[in-house]
Fold:
Amino acid sequence: MQLDSILFQDQIFREYIDHQTSDLRKKEIATMVGYPKYQLDNEIWSLITKTDSVNLIKVENIIKKYGYPGKSLVGEPTNTAVFLVVQHSPKIAKYYPLIEEAGKNKEIPFTDVAMMLDRKLTEARKPQIYGTQLEGKSITNKQTGKKHQIIYVLPIKNAKEVNSRRRKAGFETTVEENARRFGIEYKPYTYEEINRMN
Structure:
């Protein structure tokens, strides 16, 4: 099925860049996708960008034809394919109402709706609700003058209550545990503090 192929393509490169993916698994992924590992190491983001744009075209055609292809139409986990492609696209604002409706109708997990809401809010530079969205920034070390990348969880509205909201939404990890998946410790920031980082 086309959606299963889209789901695989969306997730396989992202599994490669996950902080918890072992080197052995990365070699397996390289074999599965038909690229040498050194090429994936050097070009992974351009491959993700290219795959995302092709998948978005396919998904928009599917939405036009069927609406949201949820659990009752395509089963699980195929029902998450359209959500993931939209989540990784520049068209969240356009499709969020469709995703929200699919969540209300239990066609996709509510955690998917929560992640897209967080992405929608953070794209507008507003505090997120569930603490699912991270960002990276290149900053200069004042002593050495060298640039390095830092990653952080974007600001959260009423951050002290975030883990309670996450539990109610169906997330199995705390915001701190989720941050560690990306190799970082969670620290609460405001957008003003992030803007001052350089």
User: Anything to note?
Assistant: The mean pLDDT is 94. The longest helix spans residues 37-66. The radius of gyration is 18 Å. The first strand starts at residue 134 and ends at 140.
